[in-house]
Design goal:
alpha/beta, Rossmann fold, 10 strands
Length: 250
């Protein structure tokens, strides 16, 4: 069971324990943002954009209950799933649930059990990144995907593509071969498939030309599929569904 595409924020003041759980989650392909205190929690959530928060109850200063209350009281953060953590078996965990916490685990815990809980709570819409310089296609595709409950993001060129992908963590990339601003789609595909953190993300190439040489180059660099433009909506959705399912199991 892997956590590909999920970002977990952890607030834990025990640095040794924090490092241990961070390492365990990262070996399962979760992204982890680790903090030893809950100061500036709203700003840090806005910066990190986590899919779930693991929050120690027994923090010095502002404790986990207070932080949980703050998060669940704010419209912009109340949807964030929270798993409370504690090593104190006498603590009133019902207080945490009353404040809006979604789960509570006692330390020490079994990592596989924790991951199962994370996966259950941190469900999100599948993410699709579209790299396409035709703005009309971008608008059409992102609107269509939003209606189908995909979290779609469009960029018009491939500059800084590695950081864009790492920041958005898409489950699938739709990539135009013939981008006007360098690098072109072929080079972007090569960059993505050469980076250890992005190479497993499926890439479907989009092209308006039946250029066999370009398509072969993309496959040589690791592209997973291609689609000719103009494409039928159903064909695009079938490709997306296929590779989203593949991405979940990588």
């Amino acid at each position: 069971m892997t956590g590909k595409g999920l970002k977990i924020m952890i607030i834990e003041d025990n640095k040794s324990f924090l490092e241990t759980i961070q390492d365990l989650l990262e070996t399962k392909d979760f992204q982890v943002a680790a903090y030893t205190e809950g100061r500036n929690i709203a700003q840090n959530i806005a910066k990190e954009k986590p899919d779930l928060l693991m929050l120690d109850i027994n923090l010095p200063g502002e404790d986990g209950f207070s932080i949980c209350r703050q998060i669940k009281s704010a419209p912009e953060t109340r949807a964030l799933p929270i798993i409370l953590m504690t090593g104190d078996a006498t603590i009133d965990i019902d207080k945490g649930f009353a404040l809006g916490a979604d789960d509570c685990i006692f330390k020490p815990f079994d990592i596989d059990d924790v991951i199962a809980r994370i996966k259950k709570l941190a469900r999100r819409d599948p993410r699709v990144l579209l790299v396409e310089d035709d703005r009309k296609i971008c608008e059409m595709v992102t609107a269509m995907l939003a209606e189908k409950h995909y979290d779609a993001k469009a960029v018009n060129d491939g500059r800084d593509i590695i950081n864009v992908v790492k920041g958005f963590s898409p489950d699938l990339i739709l990539l135009d071969i013939s981008l006007q601003i360098p690098p072109d789609g072929i080079e972007i595909c090569r960059l993505l498939k050469s980076d250890s953190e992005t190479r497993k993300t499926p890439v479907v190439m989009l092209t308006a030309n039946e250029d066999a040489d370009s398509i072969e180059k993309c496959f040589a660099f690791g592209a997973d599929d291609y689609l000719f433009k103009p494409f039928k909506t159903q064909d695009l959705l079938l490709r997306i569904k296929k590779y989203i399912e593949y991405s979940k199991n990588v």
